[in-house]
Structure formats: C-alpha cells, structure tokens
Give the backbone structure.
Amino acid sequence: MTTIKDVAQLAGVGLGTASRALSGHGSVAADTRRRVEEAVRALGFEPRPDARRRRAPALDAIGIYVPFFTGNFHAPLMQAVQSELRAVGGHLIAACGTGAGDERQQALQGIAFLLERRCAGIVVVAPALSEADVAALRQRHPHLVFVNRAGAPGDRHCFAIDHELGGRLAARALLERGHERIACMAGADDAPDNALRMHGFHAELARHGLGVPQELRVTGHFTFEGAHAATRELLRRAAGRFTALFCANDAMAVAAIARLSRAQLRVPQDVSVVGFDDSDLAIYTSPQLTTVRIPVEHMAANACRYLLNACFGMAHPVVHEFRPILVWRESVTQRGGAPAVPDTRPPGAARHRAPDAFAQAR
C-alpha cells in the first residue's frame, strides 16, 4: 500500500513537508507543492477520506507529555522519540506538568495543550492518570499511546517495562552472592513503577524465606538529596549490620555510595549496592554500579513507531515486550569474600578494614 512516506521520498521532501502540501496547512513553496502533487499522481496515492477533515496545522507532528523534561528516565525517553521523528522528517511538540493542581491535574492540562495543537498522535507518560482518565482521552483522540503503563492483555496502545521482574533480578543478584541481611531504599511512594520494583524485590526475598526488617527500610524519593538523608538515617538506626543495599533507582544508589563512603564504609567490601535503571551515572561511580537495566529508549522508540504507522501509514516493526536485565559491575561482592573485580588501588593504599565499621558509622 502506498503511503505518504512513499510520496515524500519520490518528491524528495520530508514527511512533514509532504503532509503540509497535501493538507493545505502551513507554508510550502510552489515548486515543492508541485513535486508532491506529481508524486501523488505517479504513485496513485489516495489520502484517507477523513484525513483533511481530522488533521490540522500540526499534521506532521507527534506530541509527547511527560511530568518532567529532566532526569534519567524522561530525558532519554524524549530523545528516543525525537530521534524516530527526525529520521522521517517529523516534528515533536512537547508538554510537561505545569500550573496549579496535583500531578494528575497537571497531566490533564498538558495533554489538553497537545490536543489543542491537533497533533497527529500523542505519546503520554503520566502515571498519575486513572483508568477513567485514559478511557476519556482515548475517546477524544484515536492516536494516543501510553508509555510506562501496563494495559489490558492485547492493548496495543500501552507500552510498559516489567518493573516487577527488575526488582526480582536485583534481589537475585544479592541472594546469589550470599547476602541475607539486606536493606532497601524505595523511591517515590506514589509512583507505580516504584511500587512494582519494590514488590518484585520483596517477593523474591520472601520466596527464599527472607525479608527486610522495618529498620532496614528507608525512602529516598528518587533524588540525590533524599537518598543521602535516607542513608544517614539507615546507618543511624540499623540495629545490626546489613551487608547489602538495594536502591530503586541509580540516582539514589550513587548518593548512598557517597554517604557510605563518608561513614568509612567501603563498597562493596563492607556493603554491596545494587541500583536500578542503568543510567549514565552507573559507570562513573566508584566503584562502578551493579544495576538493573531497563530499555527506556527502546520502549519509547516503539511507541513512536506505532504512532507513525497509525498516523502516516508507515510499516515500522513494533514490539511491546520490554524486559529488564541485570548489569554486573563492581559494587556487589560475595558476602564475606573479595571484591568481584581485581583491586585496582595504587600500591601502598590502605587495604585493611577499620574495626567494626558499622559501629563507627552509627
């Protein structure tokens, strides 16, 4: 089937330019319009009967809503969508949570902004939306995809990572290295992905007859500052030694490593640390961070490809399954054993453990 992408290629123009020429919206040079029209005739391309009526000035644009433009989750996600659109000459219109109201209200306002611009399709990253909100938005626009949100079986509009499996992988990594006295640091209490990660982590420990005592559970709110304070609190109130710490994202793991070092606790010799995300931070910690890698960019790219297929008749392959994997680095070691990688400290550096390091930290 001939698509608008074929027309654009034959005319030697971008997808957006071809879309504007066919819709009559936006500025297109006369010669360019003529080449597009000639390509349409040569290929026998017939736009869907309702295309001109439904589409509007942003015909060639895909919208995206995210709560924040920054961070190790949302920023790579947006970049992945932008890369997909750039490859076909499309444009991205972005909105984030602003204005009054809670996170849900901000999301509805930001999505309304994109709907008003009549984007051909919209990528929505808004965990605060209810199922009723999602159903209502689908009634307003036929081409919405929801990223980092699990849908009903067979729902092709939802793209989600298996965060629960990621939590299980983190627990297995520590269990395989013999750790039993394990602490954990959760992220934001109201974040669905945090809940899934922590549920998987605790469920895997329980499967092996283990649990995390309440005094070894803290919350770092997914931030450096929150994690630094949470690690200090963990060290203050820990009645006994813990040999490992799981953090629900890499930012918290990095801050925890810094605070442990300040307390004269070595990672991994005194405390093994596992993060989550495999962000760019992970390879720049000292030691490098063992973490759960989640395919954020791959998920976002496939969501965008789904919209390109639906909105512009393209034929990109699209997948919906995104499984995390564990990335082994230097921050986890065998309980009571040597570091998992050779010691690279310079000759003469102190290599003995301070007596009762946990007692000093408290």
